[in-house]
Amino acid sequence: MELGIEGKVAVVTGGDSGIGRATAKLLADEGVKVALVDKTTAQLDGAVDEVSAVGEALAVQADLRSLADVEAARDEILSRFGQVNILVNCAGITGATGDFLEIGDEAWHQALDVNLMGAVRMCRTFIPAMREAGWGRVVLVASEDAVQPYIDEMPYCAAKAGVLNFAKNLSKAYAQDGVLVNSVAPAFIASPMTDAMMEQRAKKMGTSVEEAIATFLKEERPHLELKRRGKVQEVAAVIAFLCSQQSSFVVGANYRVDGGSVASVSL
User: Fold this and answer.
1) What is the mean pLDDT of the chain?
2) Residues taking part in catalysis
3) pTM
4) How confident is the model over 91-103, as a mean pLDDT?
5) Residue 263 confidence (pLDDT)
6) From CA 87, how far away is CA 35, in angstroms rounded?
7) Structural element, H or E, at residue 136
8) Averaged over 111-120, what is the pLDDT?
């Protein structure tokens, strides 16, 4: 399928690894010029080297908790490419987990600042360029946790629920300007984030990582019908579609890429 976005410029946060890295590579393969944004250095440079093998890519270091960093990233990207047409916000953290009564304000603020306010800062900074051009695509990465509660991950769940609501609001605010906003909600994807979760689980259980994954699926994700972790490429494919000309009548939608993990008909 021809995506019709060759020559467009995309900004992908969380681009140093996982879903962000896979998305950047797929977009570059479609002829999109990609700015990969993350707070790391060496790992980000490695991702850019990989993406550059198939297209034009730029590494931009920025901490999404800092508005100054985000605005500096915008200036650097516009200086290099002259425009921004696509924003994919993949950056996120698991944040504090455990008993609700033992999670303090600072931990809550950290999860909200990265997962929700990071998306807010990126959109507020980059949407004006898309409005001016009269064409844009914004994809915010949420999570199954946004609609399916997990009592030991409350800060993350709340932040991702906020991302869904934020994306829906943005979609109504800027569709008339040609800027189409949607979200994607993955579940238990094989990425550095879930690798760390499973390594910690394996250490706690005294088992292998493979056994930790198997027991996690059985005990914590019983509705994930495919009984495996998803692949970053499987999420990137849906994101790329939402960034394309082919998604021109998709506005304010949330695409679940979760292997069936969400048990209800909830969005």
Assistant:
1) 95
2) 156
3) 0.94
4) 94
5) 82
6) 10
7) strand 136-141
8) 97
Tell me the C-alpha to C-alpha distance, in Å, between residue 93 and each of 114, 138, 143, 174, 197: 7, 20, 11, 27, 11
β-sheet bridge partners, residue 57 = 34
* Cβ atoms within 10 Å, residue 38: 25
- Give the whole-angstrom CA distance, residue 134 versus residue 146: 31
Cβ atoms of 227 and 114 closer than 8 Å: no
> CB within 8 A of 203, min separation 6: which ones?
none
Whether the per-residue pLDDT at 136 is higher than 70: the answer is: yes
Joined together, the tokens standing for residue 231 give 């692949």
C-alpha span between 142 and 144 (Å, rounded): 7
3-class SS at 235?
A: helix
Residue 66: CB atoms within 10 Å: 15
> Which of these, 161, 224, 232, 163, lies nearest to 191 by C-alpha position?
232
Q: What is the C-alpha to C-alpha distance for residues 21 and 12, in angstroms, rounded to an integer?
A: 8
Residue whose entry in the numeric block shows the structure tokens 């994306």? 167
By the 10 Å C-beta count (0-12 exposed, 13-18 middle, 19+ buried), 26 is classed as buried
Q: Looking at domain 9-189+231-257, which CATH architecture does it have?
A: 3-Layer(aba) Sandwich (3.40)
Q: What's the full length of the chain, in residues?
A: 267
